[in-house]
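Fold it.
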Amino acid sequence: MANKIFATNYFYPLQATVAGTTVISGTTGVDMLGYEGCLIIAAFGALSASQVTTLQASDSATNGTFVAITNAVTPAMADADSSKLLVLDVYRPVKRWLSAIVNRATGNAVINGVVMIQYNTKKAPTTLASGTNQTAASKFYLGGT
């Protein structure tokens, strides 16, 4: 039995732990050529009172200048949402390249990390993207074996 999730999907870590109130944008795009969608997951630590934190997708035709996608944004986190996730699913993006934006305003929100998972490939790429935005290791376990 083949492991479909690791064979046909790629995982891109985009952001290390950082505290503050500034907007965080991915510095590199994820090439969506041949993929139907991308799941963006942002993990958070402590949230300060009155913080306004959302997760938003941005896109680019050329992996150059990324522009926020107006309706591709999560609701804001509640102040009591410390140590929780924001998850955004971008299905059939209009432009070829995607990136993530963590919008932070007013109060501090600690970002523990942001990961983008491409899914539903029509044809697996022949090579992985270069650079550090790749999975270091993976494991598939079939229960009972």
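The first helix runs from residue 4 to 8.
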